[in-house]
Every structure is written in C-alpha cells, then in structure tokens.
Design goal:
The complex is a heterodimer.
Chain A lengths: L4 E12 L2 E7 L2 E3 L3 E5 L6 H8 L9 E9 L2 E2 L7 H7 E4 L10 H11 L6 H11 L3 H4 L12 H14 L4 E5 L7 H14 L4 E5 L3 H7 L2 E7 L5 E8 H6 L4 H7 L5
Chain B lengths: L1 H15 L10 H36 L6 H6 L3 E2 L4 E2 L2 H32 L2 H16 L2 H20 L8 H25 L3 H9 L4 H12 L1 H17 L2 H6 L17 H10 L7 H31 L5
Antiparallel strand pairs in B: 1-2
Helix pairs in contact in B: 2-13, 4-7, 4-10, 5-7, 6-7, 7-10, 8-9, 10-13, 12-13
The chains are: A alpha/beta, B mainly alpha.
Bound molecules: adenosine-5'-diphosphate and magnesium ion.
Chain lengths: ~260, ~325
Amino acid sequence: MENHYAIETNELSIHYGNFTAVKDVSMKVERQKITAIIGPSGCGKSTLLRAFNRMNDFVPGCHASGELLLQGQNLYGKEIDPVEVRRKIGMVFQKPNPFPKSIYENIAWGARINGFKGKMDELVEQSLRSAALWDEVKDKLQESAYALSGGQQQRLCIARTIAIQPEIILMDEPASALDPISTLRIEELMQELKKNYTIIIVTHNMQQAARASDYTAMMMIDERRAGGVIEFDGTTRIFTNPKDKRTEDYVTGRFG
Amino acid sequence: MKEETLKLKAVEAKSFRQFDLKKKFRISESVIQALLFLAGILSVFTTIAIVYELGKEALLFFTNPDVTLFKFLGTTKWQPGIGQYGIWALVSATLLTSVIAMLISIPLGLASAIYLSEYASYRMRSILKPILEILAGIPTVVYGYFALLFVTPILKTFFGDYIQVYNMLSAGLVMGIMILPLISSMSEDALSAVPRALREGAYAMGATKLETSIQIVLPAALSGIGAAVIIGVSRAVGETMIVAVASGSGPNFSFNPLEAAETMTGHIARISGGDLSYNSIDYTSLFAIALMLFLVTLVLNLISQWVVNRFREQYE
Ligand SMILES: Nc1ncnc2c1ncn2[C@@H]1O[C@H](COP(=O)(O)OP(=O)(O)O)[C@@H](O)[C@H]1O
Ligand SMILES: [Mg+2]
C-alpha cells in the first residue's frame, strides 16, 4: 500500500529548554507537492522545518516531543540514526552556504560520503542540470564555488542536495537573500523539482507562497509565544477563502 | 493629502541649508595614526637591526682566513678549536629534534583542537582548556629536566643500552609536548571561526560528525592551522633550554635520535655561557650559527606557507 504522504507530524512540539517554540503541530505533507509554511517572524517556521531533518539536534537544549513519521517510522524514535534521516531529507538554507571547495567537489562530496559508486562526472552534470545551473558553470567546474553569484550559489546548494537523491527537500527562505530575478529562477526550479521530490518551503513572501506552492500551512504564536499551525489547506483556499480570521488578516497584509 | 504637502515643505526647507563638506583637521585621528605607524615601524626596525648585527659579526667570521664557505656548508664536523667549521653537525640536531617535536605536536595538537572545537561539551571544554594553558605556562627549563629525569629513563626501558643518557629523542618528544598547547589553542581558534553555516550544510547532506570535522571544517580552517604550525616550527627550531639540558653538549652529525647531539641553540647557549674574548673565532662563530638559525627558520616558514596556500580552502 503506497502512502501518498511524504511525511506526517502528530502533535509535534519543539522546545528550547523550557520554552516551547512550536506546539502540537499535526500535519500531513503530500508527496511531490510544494508545501509552504508562512507566518510572522518568530512564530517557529524555521524551528518546525529544522525539526523535519533533525537539524535541531545541534542546538543545545532543543528537544522534540510528539511524532514525526516517515514511512510509518517515528524519526524521533530511539532507534533512529539522525544521519540517515538527513540523507533522506535534504535542506537548503536561507543564506547560500556552498562548501569552500570547487563547484564540482561541492556536488561530488555529498554523493561520495553517501556511498555513491557510479560515474561521478555524470552525476555532477545531471545534478547541475536539474538545478538549472549547468550551462552557467560547465566551463568552470574546478573553480571555487565562491566565485559564483548568490543566486548561482543557492542553485549549487540545491544541486548538491539533489545529488544525494533525498525524498524530501526542505527550504528555509531560500530566496530571501537573492535579487528578484534569481528568486524567480529558484521558483521555476521548484516547479521542476516537484516532479521528483517533495518540497517544504518556509517563506515570509506572500506572493511567493501563493505563486509557488500547492499547500500552505499558516503559523501563528499563541499567548505564551508558542507557535502553532492554525490553518493548513490548499494554497488557493488559504489565499482566497481562509477559515481563520487571523489567516485572512495575515495574507491580505492587515496583520500587526 | 494635507500630510503630503507638509512633507514636501520639509524637504524644501532642508535643501536650503548649506552643507560644509570641506576637509577638517581631526587631531586624535592624526595622533593615533602616527602612533600606530610607530608601533609598526618598531618591529620592522628591530628585525633589521638584528639582521644587521648578525650579519656584521658573521662577516668577521667568514672573512677569517681559517674559514671558508665550503668548510662551513660542506663539512659535518664542528670544532672551532681545531679548525673544523661544518655547520651541519649542529643543523642536523636542530632539524631532528624539531621534526620529532612536530611529529608529536601537530597530530596531537590538531586532534585536541578538533576534539575541543567539534566534540567537547561546554563543560568538558571549560575543564580542558585551562589545563592546556597551564601546560603552556611551564618554564622550558622545567621541561628540560622533565625530559632528562623522567622521559629518558622511560625510553631507557625500551631501548636499553642503545639510547644514550643525553639524546635527541627525549628532547624532541618533550619539546613536542611543550608546543602542543600552542598548536592546539591556535588551531581551535581557527576551527571555531569556521561559520556554523558550513557545518550545518555538511550535516544536512547526511554527513557524520567525523566527516564534517575532517573534510569540511578542517580544510576551511587550514590557513589558521598553518599559522599555528609555522609558529610551532619556529618555537621548536629556536627552543634552547630543553635541548641544552636533555640532548647533550657536543656537536654530532647524526640522524639517530637515540644519540646525543647539540643543536644550534644549545651550542650558542653553552659557548656564550663560558668566558669568551671578543675577537676570538669562537665568539664570531656564534653569530654565523645564529645567522644560520635565522635562515633555517625562514626556510621552514616559507615551506609551511607554501603548503598552506596549496591546500587551504577559503571561505568568505
Ligand atoms: N537556538 C535557539 N535557542 C532558543 N530559542 C530559539 C532558538 N532559535 C529560535 N528560538 C526561538 O524560537 C522561536 C521561533 O523561532 P524561529 O523558528 O526562528 O521563527 P521563524 O523562523 O518563524 O522566524 C522564537 O521565539 C525564537 O526566539
Ligand atoms: Mg526563520
């Protein structure tokens, strides 16, 4: 029986020490769709996203409760290896963070540590093509990744994530440090990528969420400053006919 | 509407004011700049003065009819008393003890730096760092006797009669321990300065902690680590007290670490400790040795620099 959800959460809460940053999130993220997480800053979008691939493990004092299910396995279960989780759930960060290596090596490194045994040249080309970067870099593969523009660096980061063939790609405001043209290119790229991957993207850009995503989760903090998903629905519905008054205020720009 | 007209008025009013854009004399800026320049020039001047003094006296040595450059660089016995001036007898001991020291201090220093910066909990770090700093604060003469009275007897249980009471191995090992905290703390600074975003990028690719530390963080920190190694090498080459106490006091061209041999620094310390007359060949020879020491340090620095530039990975 194939599950058409890529990942599910069940009353997932995330705490920084005693402070609960994200509370009781239950959502089912559909496969090969783009799910956007929106909400005012500080409402726990990044915290929730980083919980999906256990990046929060690196924050001292941060812990999760509830369930996060991938193929029926709780990713916060005791027997789960977070390294394996991250091999299945890749991540693209807000600020492009290529490795201080050559463009080629940026792609090859991740594949190699993930045990890739095939033809590396082909994988590099294929990944760069999928990230719509190949034509711009094919003649300078051995140059430092830092010689690229910010938008190119971000696409390189997407390419290196594709190279490890994850199931899900998480993106935390991947275009917020980029100019409008680069932003559009990333959005186009996401439409291509969703044919093969499930994408969850955090964005504070309303138009971007409306344009690029299939589903939208609206987050908001409660009176104790704990963030929660107050509404989760198809993107069109969220932007045209939301159920929650707070969502309507937020997406129409009347918030705060 | 009304608000807008008001705004326009404010803009108009502003444009009438005259700006003074002429250069102004800022006394504190000039004073500070002069002081900083002086501080900079002082170190340059000191270096030049040292080289000049060394060169001047060394020239006296080389112009001595008894000495030739060939003898100096082409032979391996050093005994000015009977006309033997082969500097390699001293250089070999300096190189060998330094190599042993670096073989100890680079891997251990790097390992402890990686542990401290990537693995240790906050608590562990706050315990270990002060201990390393204490190690760095021990006077070198103490290290010297530690080598002679503690390490050498231990080595003796391994090597028996093959090892001499004074030997380069013991001195080199202890010198390595002395340099370890320096390499460790400078390398740890370099590792800690690598942006978190790089580590997160690696972890997000499914890298383990070891893969991240060794393959991403370490290469990114290499220029800082290289600086640590360069300073470490300079310390090893220039270290005097440990070798003077533990490695013996007689020039010996040998690359057998179990033998006694005198380094350039050890020799200078011993000879200048006795009473020397100004114009003797012994006296001027010290400056020739010092010049050689200077050159060896310089060459080793250049090599380290080259290695670092070759392998480092620069992040912005
Ligand atoms: N490393 C951290 N330690 C403690 N609190 C944190 C940390 N990171 C984020 N927080 C807190 O968690 C809440 C949610 O932050 P975040 O997930 O970054 O929000 P968003 O991405 O929606 O702007 C905020 O109140 C923030 O102060
Ligand atoms: Mg955020």
